[in-house]
Amino acid sequence: MDTPRRVEHQQTDRGYVPVYATGTVEQPWSSYSKTDHEVWDTLYRRQRELLPGYACQEFLDGVARFGLGDGGIPRFDDLNRVLRAATGWEVVAVEGLLPDEVFFDHLAHRRFPVSWWIRKPDQLDYLSEPDLFHDLFGHVPLLLNPVFADYMEAYGKGGMKAYAIGPDALMNLTRLYWYTVEFGLIRTDAGMRIYGAGIVSSKGESIYSIDSASPNRIGFDLERVMSTRYRIDTYQQTYFVIDSFEQLFDATRPDFTPIYNRLADRAPATAGDILSTDRVFTRGTREGWATNADN
Ligand code: PHE
Ligand code: FE
Q1: Which atom of ligand 1 is the closest one to the Cα of 253?
Q2: Ligand 1 contact via 163 beta carbon (within 6 Å)
Q3: Residue 142 Cα, ligand 1 centroid: separation in angstroms?
Q4: What residue owns the CA closest to ligand 1's atom 4?
Q5: What is the C-alpha to C-alpha distance for residues 209 and 69, in angstroms, rounded to an integer?
Q6: Measured in angstroms, how far is the CA atom of residue 91 from the centroid of ligand 2?
Q7: Structural domain for 162, as ranges
Q8: CATH number, domain at 134?
Q9: Phi and psi (nearest 5°) for 113?
Q10: Cβ(252) to ligand 1 under 6 A?
Q11: What is the complex's ipTM, to 2 decimals?
Q12: Residue 2 lies in a domain
């Protein structure tokens, strides 16, 4: 995509900023403070050291290929040169979470929205909304993988369709995103590895998802995933495990309309349930699980 046209200015916490026709903004790179850059460097170094042996090779390769380093917050323009050449994706800067249909439209056009702002030093381990570190470090490296890149575009298109069908279909599709793009695990010859962005951007959950005996680890099954509630306030009680990105992409190729219809009559599983039909890799000990309701 060409550089989008600026269409208007919008009043924000940092004054008037140009807003593009796509609802995105220019990354305000020169406005990052020394502390902002240090937060990036600290988080980057911590995950870079931890993730070999935890994250899948495709993710680690992506990080290496971008040359994401600890030299401060990356410039999106630099990343986009690599990304466009590799898979035709690009990142666009946004103020924060977008309405579903706007988010889907970006993905469908191979644009990944990244929050331009980064968390404060007292939020290194947890914050409740996605910031630059989560969006960029968590999501963007895998967009260099051709199969995953295609999956993300297809997800955006599927999202527009689910949005038009209605809220139940949208919920089913959101669960798929949650248990794959955000919290997915993958089986490799070297063992169980992480590919989900919500995990790789969290030190605590990176270790927990792979090493802890508490959570269930269950083989990916499309309809099972789409009818399983999830936790937004704790580590996951269940991780779904794919064998390969090809498997994930192939499973999501069919038209979901009949699946949405089928699932509408089925009560969702709770986040920690194990069903008789599950292919269980690890049955969780449930230690430390919250007892309040799932989403
Ligand atoms: N095949 C899905 C549909 O028809 C679209 C989709 C593809 C959804 C990939 C998610 C991931 O709705
Ligand atoms: Fe995310």
Answers
A1: 1
A2: no
A3: 19
A4: 255
A5: 25
A6: 13
A7: 8-282
A8: 1.10.800.10
A9: -75, 130
A10: yes
A11: 0.97
A12: no
| Ligand 1 touching residue 159 (CB < 6 A) | no
Closest ligand 1 atom to residue 159 Cα is: 8
For residue 157, give the ligand 1 atom closest to its CA: 5
Beta bridge partners of 124: none
Structural domains in the chain (count): 1
Under the phi-then-psi rule, with left for phi > 0, alpha for psi from -120 to 50, and beta for the rest, what region is 110?
Answer: left
Domain for residue 289, yes or no? no
Ligand 1, atom 10, residue with closest C-alpha: 155
∠119-143-116 over CA atoms, to 5°? 25
Max CA separation in the chain (angstroms): 56
Dist CA 236 CA 205 (whole Å)? 9
The reply, when asked if residue 109 is annotated as ligand binding, is no
pLDDT (tens, 9 = 90+) of the chain, 295 residues, equals 344 444 455 555 555 665 665 679 999 999 999 999 999 999 999 999 999 999 999 999 999 999 888 899 999 999 999 999 999 999 999 998 899 999 999 999 999 999 999 999 999 998 889 999 999 999 999 999 999 999 999 999 999 999 999 999 999 999 999 999 999 999 999 999 999 999 999 999 999 999 999 999 999 999 999 999 998 889 999 999 999 999 999 999 999 999 999 999 899 999 999 999 999 999 999 999 988 777 6
